[in-house]
Amino acid sequence: MNAAGTRQPSLTDVAGVAGVSHMTVSRVINGTGPVRPETRARVLAAIEELGYRPNSAARALVTGRTGTLGVVALESNLYGPASTLYGIENAAREAGYAITISSVSRPGRSSIADAVENLRRQAVEGIIVIAPHVTAGRALEAAPADFPVVAVGGGEAAPVPVISVDQRDGARRATEHLLALGHRTVWHVAGPEDWLEARDRELGWRETLERHGVDVPEVIRGDWSSRSGYEAGRSLAKEGDLDAVFAGNDQMALGLLRAFAEAGVSVPRDVRVAGFDDVPEAAYFTPPLTTVRQDFIEVGRRTFGLLTQRMGGGDRHARALVVPELIVRESTGPR
Amino acid sequence: MNAAGTRQPSLTDVAGVAGVSHMTVSRVINGTGPVRPETRARVLAAIEELGYRPNSAARALVTGRTGTLGVVALESNLYGPASTLYGIENAAREAGYAITISSVSRPGRSSIADAVENLRRQAVEGIIVIAPHVTAGRALEAAPADFPVVAVGGGEAAPVPVISVDQRDGARRATEHLLALGHRTVWHVAGPEDWLEARDRELGWRETLERHGVDVPEVIRGDWSSRSGYEAGRSLAKEGDLDAVFAGNDQMALGLLRAFAEAGVSVPRDVRVAGFDDVPEAAYFTPPLTTVRQDFIEVGRRTFGLLTQRMGGGDRHARALVVPELIVRESTGPR
DNA sequence: GCTCCGGATGTTAACGCTAACAAAAATGAT
DNA sequence: ATCATTTTTGTTAGCGTTAACATCCGGAGC
């Protein structure tokens, strides 16, 4: 391909056609230094004629800048991480950066370190780690101080800037909402223990119950999947006086709804259910789901902002928090 | 950052520490040419000591290879495109390529051309366009012949290799399944007209009805969202003798289920519903959804394969088809 | 008309790496 | 020991670009 004998035209080729030196061409392209309008026009014409495209490797070699950022992403279709990625890509593109991704199937100390190393070999100028895991956060503890890395949604203790959604606050909102409806207590189907978000949501839920002085039921552990929510729902349906359940995410809430429907337990009449994330489908569940919305695009945007700040020498300990919003729908509606 | 005065160590620095020439270091790193074990050990130690990392720009400049592929992705959380991206990234990483993404918010001739140009400036060695749109396919008609571009899921007429899931066949399977249950006919809630997948699914549905000699009802047009499925469901529920509906994707099917539930129409007793995609949640809808599964990871893998083939000088007109699978669940179950 | 100035252009030298060839050291055969 | 190999190492050049400095040119000021 392309190796059809012809190599890409270079600055010098353009210069030859335009009858100027290669430096003049460089100046026209980069807008550095003064060039007579007439000369500029000739150069532009030559560029057009040859289909010249600057060689980014040569440019990177001499300037030391590649204009590329790396993102370590969890390989998953989970709504949150995927949306965050787009938010980041968007902000980066607007600022003239390209995004190179390195995905990780299972988050772990070494896999994340590998991905980071991988990206550094690609000569990215900075790295964003989408690290919702406890282990991911821990991997960042070893992040080099001389290279800009920021994390989204994890690693509170890590010596890198972190941006996250206030999961605890979201969980608090959902729990208070359920309590305000007069329920004795609220059950919780939590996400996997090694996810920070799962921990924080559980914490927010627990704190709220304690603050209100109500009994804290045992946590039911899920894995974010609808299947695990379904199983949780089946065991919950066997409980006697069940009245409200807060699911760690919308997928699990869907599983709950399914299990309750099968067990003949009506939502919201017999039990009220709330979720977390506000996936686009949540409004069309049966019944429509009350949930906590996270603005992932905003998260992506602010993450990028934090990274550029850090690349400019900003603080390693910067933190940013995005506040989630409670969306009330029928699953916690009137009976 | 990093500009702390110290520049990254170079081959020459390593050579100095190891007491050899820079070429010997290069040979150790790349495994080209013979090096005495003892020398290799000294070099390796020096690399370790200095924390040397090869400069990819310099390497790319001299070899003409960047080890990077570009992906033009539609900026969306749609299950299919997102999954495909991961499949591609996976296959690429295994083969030692990095992936740079350039997302497109609205697919159009020029936006896709821009994204491609953008990636070429990043000096990617090949480009994959995830182009489920009609316009995207059209944009590819102008794809340069001297640069390897492949498309996934679109642009049948484009002069680039294309890999796609056999949408028509999937639609046929779903429609036949519904007809086999004894329904008089099958309604269809289609995706947006400018999506190739929507067209093909509609075509497969129509063909099947015609082949069976049954009436072809008017198509109801949606936009992939649950909301549009919901609206379609509301108008369908008003119809008299409704008996089976094939939705263009699972999200719209969810909207249908919701609308039917509200209208007191029972699925599958009063009406049977099938979807397309098999999103992970489909098994937990109320009722669990019969749908057509697409193996997106496989699609990603084969797309990468087609690209490498094309980079090696392969045919511009290669085609690959992935066959989908019907998953039967309660939404088309016994009454 | 001559100098001086600043805008416009050109020249040269890196950047860090690999390809290609050259040289030296080690090995084996005689 | 000597020469022909073979293995191992070194030297040089150049990839395409920008930074830094050098040069040229036309007009203003005297």
Structure write-up:
The structure is a homodimer of 335-residue chains. By secondary structure, chain A is of the alpha/beta class. The first copy, chain A, has helices at 11-18, 22-30, 37-50, 56-63, 79-94, 109-121, 134-139, 167-180, 196-211, 226-238, 250-263, 296-311, and strands spanning 68-74, 98-104, 126-130, 149-152, 162-165, 187-190, 220-221, 244-247, 272-274, 291-293, 319-322, 325-327. In chain A, the strands form 3 sheets. A 6-stranded parallel sheet of chain A has the order 2-1-3-4-5-11, with helices on both faces. In chain A, strands 7-6-8-9 form a 4-stranded parallel sheet, with helices on both faces. At the A-B interface, helix 4, helix 5, strand 2, helix 6 and helix 10 of A face helix 4, helix 5, strand 2, helix 6 and helix 10 of B. The first copy, chain A, binds a DNA duplex (30 and 30 nucleotides) through residues 8, 10-12, 20-24, 26-27, 30, 32-36, 39, 54-55, 57-64.
List the uncertain runs of chain A: none
The percent range for strand residues of chain A is: 5-15%
Tell me about the largest β-sheet of chain A: 6 strands, parallel
What overall geometry of chain A do the principal axes of the alpha carbons give?
A: elongated
Order of helices and strands of chain A: HHHHEHEHEHEEHEHEHEHEEHEE
Considering DSSP H and I runs of 4 or more, what fraction of the residues of chain A is helical? Answer: 40-55%
- Give the rounded overall mean pLDDT of chain A: 91
Major beta sheet, strand line-up of chain A: 2-1-3-4-5-11
Distance between the termini of chain A: 67 Å
Number of continuous helical runs of chain A: 12
- Secondary-structure content class of chain A: alpha/beta
Q: Considering residues with a beta carbon less than 8 A from a beta carbon on another chain, report the largest interface and each chain's count.
A: A-B, 63 and 63 residues
Radius of gyration of chain A: 26 Å
User: In terms of quaternary structure, what is this?
Assistant: homodimer
- Give me the count of strands of chain A: 12
